[in-house]
């Protein structure tokens, strides 16, 4: 067995000692349950870990990761995570976080048969098709690549907003709010794409309103009367 593998368990013991040294009840508190305010949906890339780049502790962020931070409604994994986070954990923020230098996005830009990856990458290729006029107008390949990373985040945010569980919880509680971020690995910076959650919600309600009621505008009017 490799030394690097064994090191993981040595690191775990060291981590336990450090945590207990800081707080003797650390693991007891952790075992009592989780109450995170954030659901983070990010890329599986080993260089972009959610808690570390957000500066949060165990129990403070619910995390789902996959290749190129995709939210596909046919993917039971991501949709189950979102529904659980919204309905049971009652998270207040859903964050889609992409990163520059994403291998999944790069692969989606490559005109090549990638076998089993094709169905997954099709979601990202659909993002390119949707924004093809803008992307094709960018002459620099590197700049176009970075822009597709951003647009992919934007479209995955929209996919989350389309979900019934998200819409219904928002009507009841004014949350969750959906955010789009990009992590710049070269600088360590988190970039907020300033996704306008309510405006997107308003724009898509005629087609993607899954609440069975004319909810958004009447809700706003009622709030203004309070």
Task: Give a structural overview.
- There is one protein chain.
- The protein is of the alpha/beta class.
- It contains 11 helices and 5 strands, in the order ααβαβαβαααααββαα.
- The protein has a 5-stranded mixed sheet with strand order 2-1-3-4-5.
- The termini are far apart.
Short summary:
With 226 residues, this protein is an alpha/beta fold. It is 54% helix and 14% strand. The chain has 11 helices and 5 strands.
Indicate the topology.
Elements: H1 3-22, H2 26-31, E1 38-43, H3 50-54, E2 61-66, H4 76-87, E3 93-99, H5 103-108, H6 117-130, H7 132-136, H8 141-161, H9 164-173, E4 177-184, E5 189-192, H10 197-208, H11 215-225
Total DSSP helices: 11
Please give the largest β-sheet: 5 strands, mixed
Spans of at least 5 consecutive residues with low confidence: none
The sequence of SSEs as H and E is: HHEHEHEHHHHHEEHH
Helix- and strand-based class?
Answer: alpha/beta
Query: How much helicity do the residues have?
Result: 40-55%
Strand content: 5-15%
Key structural traits:
single chain; 226 residues; alpha/beta; 5-stranded mixed β-sheet; 11 helices; globular
């Amino acid at each position: 067995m490799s030394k690097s593998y064994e090191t993981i368990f040595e690191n775990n013991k060291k981590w336990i000692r450090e945590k207990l040294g800081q707080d003797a009840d650390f693991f007891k508190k952790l075992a009592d349950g989780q109450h995170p305010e954030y659901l983070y949906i990010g890329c599986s890339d080993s260089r972009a870990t959610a808690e570390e780049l957000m500066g949060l502790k165990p129990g403070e962020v619910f995390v789902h990761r996959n290749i190129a931070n995709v939210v596909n409604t046919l993917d039971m994994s991501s949709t189950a995570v979102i529904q659980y986070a919204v309905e049971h954990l009652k998270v207040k923020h859903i964050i889609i976080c992409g990163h520059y230098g994403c291998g999944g996005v790069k692969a989606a830009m490559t005109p090549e048969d990638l076998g089993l990856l094709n169905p997954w990458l099709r979601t990202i290729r659909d993002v390119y098709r949707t924004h093809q006029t803008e992307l094709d107008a960018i002459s620099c390949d590197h700049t176009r690549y970075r822009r597709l990373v951003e647009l992919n985040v934007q479209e995955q945010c929209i996919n989350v907003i389309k979900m019934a569980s998200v819409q219904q919880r928002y009507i009841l509680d004014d949350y969750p709010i959906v955010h789009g971020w990009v992590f710049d690995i070269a600088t360590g910076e988190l970039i907020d794409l300033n996704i306008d959650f309510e405006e997107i919600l308003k724009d898509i309600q005629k087609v993607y309103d899954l609440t069975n009621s004319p909810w958004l505008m009447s809700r706003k009017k009622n709030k203004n009367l309070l």
